[in-house]
Amino acid sequence: MALLVEKTSAGREYKVKDLSQADFGRLEIELAEVEMPGLMSCRAEFGPSQPFAGARISGSLHMTIQTAVLIETLTALGAEVRWCSCNIFSTQDHAAAAIARDSAAVFAWKGETLAEYWWCTERCLDWGPSGGPDLIVDDGGDATLLIHEGVKAEEEFEKTGKLPDPASTDNAEFQIVLGIIRDGLKVDPKKYRRMKERLVGVSEETTTGVKRLYQMQASGALLFPAINVNDSVTKSKFDNLYGCRHSLPDGLMRATDIMIAGKVAVVCGYGDVGKGCAAALKQAGARVIVTEIDPICALQALMEGLPVLTLEDVVSEADIFVTTTGNKDIIMGLEAYPGVKRITIKPQTDRWVFPETNAGIIVLAEGRLMNLGCATGHPSFVMSCSFTNQVIAQLELWKERSTGKYEKKVYVLPKHLDEKVAALHLGKLGAKLTKLTPSQAEYISVPVEGPYKPARYRY
Ligand SMILES: NC(=O)c1ccc[n+]([C@@H]2O[C@H](COP(=O)([O-])OP(=O)(O)OC[C@H]3O[C@@H](n4cnc5c(N)ncnc54)[C@H](O)[C@@H]3O)[C@@H](O)[C@H]2O)c1
Q1: Which of 207, 246, 371, 383 to mutate to test the pocket of ligand 1 (most atoms within 8 A of CB)?
Q2: How many CA atoms lie within 13 A of 140 on its CB side?
Q3: What distances in angstroms separate CA 246 from CA 121, 130, 325, one per listed residue?
């Protein structure tokens, strides 16, 4: 695909696969809205006061139907939005088309190359000569990374005249990042620093991105305030767990239609995602084995009746392998195996065949997030919890932009807001909460209206 920015008749920029899918996207967005009570109540509560009037928000987060409802919540609150996906395989093209036509600038399509992916990320951050976004919604930290690397390179260039050198790394993706920063530097050597000056902050969606932010905070490299949305209880203990419990089998079935019952399945990592994946596989009738490095998570798996072994112990007998560690080098060596052949069955489903035996292994989404690559990610209801946290985090950063409340550090949302996100989702499921009496509240030392748990409580 030629990388040219297109414009709607209203003049809004976009690059998507096929704008004619917009009507289909709109119909599915309307279905999702019914299942996203948290986001819809944000619209009802905050829409009238237009709190984001004048705010530019750039988002790097899977461009799915659920994300479309998030984007249109941000625009309903007054923001102007530019968006890209945070994964080369996760865009739902009809969602991207509907958003591009109706609501925001979008640069995303399913099956981007890595070079296209980073082009999209650049476009998403590019608000023209007057600087970048005011706020970033990030998932995995790539938008944040590009700005940090850009600022670093500009400062180095100003001091020494040295341009970033893609050959300085053997990481193929980072070579692309250095390449686009180098090319950008030649045209505008202050772009990322202007962006940094304007930026109020970022809210980060996932475990891996949050890890990067804390590393930057520790080394003093963090350039703007950040809110860690992942560690809201109503995010990591819901999306990562119940979301994956739904979308892992969905991805497996859509990609392979293989029967899960009776198979031996290995789940590498028994954190929030691993727990959801293991539960789904067990429920589907698989014999599930866990690998872990952490004795606490290993013991949790054992308490659920799941054996904990090493990959070496099980590699010869297991049928299904799921990696959920957020770590590297978990299952390796396939591409390097002499004579191995890759046969693409369909996009994001490849069979790798060994020369000696003609036996094969099916690899989903090239080892990336398979629930988004091979299915449509988590369902709307659980994403409503995650994204309500995102909206609250963005509102908080924007509201406090000139008060100095947030320094160049990583913050989590306060407990009462976490509880509010959960509360917004109870009615839809027909729940009725018990009300504390004042004397009960006093007895357990909590306010009648919450928060009901101390920050240290683990759920
Ligand atoms: N696909 C999705 O929909 C989705 C949703 C949420 C999070 N994520 C991503 O999934 C990953 C895991 O997230 P999480 O919230 O479960 O994190 P987590 O920290 O709760 O869990 C990861 C677990 O992996 C274990 N681990 C690390 N290295 C290991 C190794 N070499 N072998 C075995 N176990 C190992 C850790 O001890 C930990 O228990 C992250 O990259 C996160 O960004 C994906």
Answers
A1: 207
A2: 14
A3: 29, 43, 18
**DSSP annotation of 184:** H
Strand order through the sheet with 80-84: 6-7, 13-15, 105-107, 80-84, 56-60, 135-138, 201-204, 226-228, 410-411
Residue 183 annotated as binding site: no
Beta carbon of 268 within 6 Å of any ligand 1 atom: yes
State the DSSP code for 302.
Answer: H
Cα(82)–Cα(85) distance, integer angstroms: 11
Q: Which of 236, 324, 348 to mutate to test the pocket of ligand 1 (most atoms within 8 A of CB)?
A: 324
- Tell me the pLDDT tens digit for each residue of 354-391: 999 999 999 999 999 999 999 999 999 999 999 999 99
Tell me the CA–centroid distance for residue 324 and ligand 1, in Å. Answer: 4
| Separation between Cα atoms, residue 131 and residue 127, nearest integer Å | 6
The percent of the chain in helix, strand and coil, each rounded to the nearest 5, is 45, 15, 40
Residue type, 62: H
Backbone angles phi, psi at 82, to 5 degrees: -125, 145
Q: Is the CB of 299 under 6 A from ligand 1?
A: no
Give residue-wise pLDDT tens across range 263-311: 999 999 999 999 999 999 999 999 999 999 999 999 999 999 999 999 9
CA 83, CA 137: separation in Å to the nearest integer?
9
| 276 annotated ligand binder | yes
User: What's the angle, vertex CA 218, arms to CA 216 and CA 220, rounded to 5?
Assistant: 65
Residue minimizing CA distance to atom 33 of ligand 1 = 292
Q: 425 and 387 in contact (C-beta within 8 Å)?
A: no
Contact 242, 276 (CB under 8 A): yes
